Amino acid sequence: MEINTQEKIKRAMKHANISQKMIAEKFGITQGAFSQRLQTGKFSDEELKIIADVLGAKYFSGFEFPDGKKIY
Fold this sequence. Notes:
Blueprint lengths: L4 H12 L3 H8 L3 H10 L4 H11 L2 E2 L3 E2 L5 E2 L1
Helix pairs in contact: 2-3, 2-4
């Protein structure tokens, strides 16, 4: 079963123990603004790469962690 972008990001954030605020800071926006973006799930591949970098993961239309956990 394929999960949507919003759910991928939420699961990856939970796995990495990273808050929306931490990601928002990397984008230079407020946590509220990031939360709104997350609700739409509309992120470019470049933005998803930035999110993956904050999470300490690799972006490949999903997230892969050093411990082998994959969310895609």
